């Protein structure tokens, strides 16, 4: 695969900064349930007070006027308070048991209640996986076509929005960077177009608030991945919400933290590459698990905490330098053992949260770009883990 040359840094930064400034303004603008800015309390040029001649003794009028002003201010503050309710800071990966299985309304209401209880306002809900032939699958095992489950996805989106309208719901698209025979494909125009077309459908046709692109694996400096993001951004426009899953720095060198026994080249993104991805996205979900730190190799939860803290600090500092409004979610694992990558005896909710808190403290002011954590995943999180999450993170 021939990679296209990178764009000149300054022009790219200029265009991206303009887009990001608009995004930051949008994020701080109160939005009504219909997605439009609320009407002004007193539109410019819309209403003009008639001329009033004041009586000689103005004290009574002043008192009345003062009371009216106070009431107007109170009402205005109350109105803006309602419209500026902050989005709960955390995120969750949601699977096909919701998007493909047509859950009943009561089940979706219960899901929304659990999300609110755990301050989860962003959801990455599974939609589809791009197959080798550049069509979209309806199952993770690639045995059918997306058209077979399309109606179920639309139904879930409608149910979820009715139950939890204030949340941000992203449609999760999975893309393998290589075909099953190992051929790289992210640089192919047909692949980029397929991802862009489906991303557009996710938002405009299915009703999601944004698209969540989970492309794996992506090595340091992969121009093909950037080409995919550029295509999606160009076709969807600057106002579309685009989130991306990004790998952690699995095996950084010359650092004083535990690293897995196997050092794989390309698994550490350089700062510039992290920033180029951030400039093209609204959210970055760092998959800070599957570290390769296992108890079999005598690693402990304390080792994972140090590794996690490094991820938080590194990504926060790099993205914060851009000052563009791109937010970071730090992933925490709740899934069963997948050795040698993921060992729950080392990686778990407790060790992940302790490491995240340490990393936020080390990041200082840069920690402001960390929106919250992203639980991976809903279908593997049991009641005990939900209770741990609430105790350790939501209400410490």
Please describe what this structure looks like:
The chain contains eleven helices and nine strands. It is globular and about 50 Å long. Helix 4 (105-117) crosses helix 5 and helix 9 packs across helix 10 (349-363). Strand 8 (327-333), helix 10 (349-363) and strand 9 form a beta-alpha-beta unit. By secondary structure, it is of the alpha/beta class. Helices cover 41% and strands 15% of the residues. It has one domain (92-394): TIM Barrel (Alpha-Beta Barrel), CATH 3.20.20.80. It has an eight-stranded parallel barrel with strand order 1-2-4-5-6-7-8-9, surrounded by six helices.
Count of DSSP H/I helices: 11
Give, in order, the helices and strands.
HHEHHEEHEHEHEHEHEHEH
Strand content: 5-15%
Largest sheet: 8 strands, parallel, barrel
